[in-house]
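Consider the tokenized backbone below.
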């Protein structure tokens, strides 16, 4: 996964890849989720080997950025690490007259990262809420060293930020001292260099930091974000990753590409990158 982190960072989470679609031609634009951008880039790279007429532009920036681009008709596909909001849906309908079409494209076990030297191995949802809202401020309160906790978070245009705020913080604000990072790769780098640090991000970015097991409640078993635990729902912070588009554009090369993403071949790449493939019932045949 490290090579994809480095690729994302070096390109500023943006790449333009020449891709072909057998029998079709043109340009497909993909914009949005930073969580998805390394997977989107890899999908494009592999798809390029088998096709030669279609160009695909992949850009990150955050799920909110992707939805804004979809509303403004400046992207064909919006990548998202959270479901579309009602206000965003209304804006899309106002823009192109139809409800945007949603495709689930992968699963993720949203992971909690600490420095590799941190003795902590697990945390409950309640403890995470207290850490990220500033109620717990010292690692000794969690059985660690007498050292202040440094919280790393994402910018508010990030779908991961919004998912974490809704499901872990229960809508509360992040602690005001949280260090806001421009992307998941930057957040991981910060945590991996800070013995006091803690942050969160997609499973595919975990190289270089320690991943904590998560407990749904204080008396629940601690669960790792493995493929088995995510697919079974045992890991409490799992989510789908999505593509959204204007239904009028779901044809020709765009439809072919989206179907390939959800095929067995496309889903193998999901696993190679570090996320978790869709169950068979959700795959394209």
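A designed sequence for it:
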């Amino acid at each position: 996964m490290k090579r994809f982190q480095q690729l994302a960072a070096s390109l500023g989470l943006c790449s333009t890849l020449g891709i072909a679609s057998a029998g079709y031609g043109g340009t497909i634009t993909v914009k949005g989720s930073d969580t998805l951008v390394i997977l989107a880039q890899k999908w494009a790279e592999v798809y390029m080997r088998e096709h030669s007429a279609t160009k695909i532009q992949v850009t990150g920036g955050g799920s909110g950025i992707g939805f804004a681009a979809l509303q403004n008709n400046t992207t064909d596909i919006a990548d998202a690490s959270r479901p579309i909001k009602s206000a965003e849906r209304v804006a899309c309908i106002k823009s192109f007259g139809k409800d945007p079409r949603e495709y689930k494209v992968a699963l993720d076990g949203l992971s909690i990262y600490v420095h590799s030297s941190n003795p902590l191995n697990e945390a409950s949802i309640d403890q995470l809420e207290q850490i990220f809202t500033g109620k717990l401020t010292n690692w000794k309160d969690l059985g660690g060293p007498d050292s202040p906790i440094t919280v790393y978070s994402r910018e508010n245009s990030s779908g991961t930020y919004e998912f974490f705020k809704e499901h872990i913080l229960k809508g509360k604000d992040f602690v005001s001292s949280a260090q806001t990072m421009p992307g998941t790769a930057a957040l991981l780098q910060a945590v991996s260099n800070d013995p006091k640090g803690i942050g969160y991000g997609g499973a595919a970015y975990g190289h270089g930091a320690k991943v904590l097991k998560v407990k749904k409640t204080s008396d629940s078993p601690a669960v790792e974000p493995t493929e088995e635990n995510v697919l079974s729902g045992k890991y409490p912070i799992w989510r789908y990753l999505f593509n959204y588009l204007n239904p009028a554009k779901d044809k020709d090369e765009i439809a072919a590409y989206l179907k390939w993403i959800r095929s067995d071949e496309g889903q193998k790449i999901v696993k190679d990158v570090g996320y978790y493939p869709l169950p068979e019932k959700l795959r394209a045949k």
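The first helix runs from residue 2 to 10.
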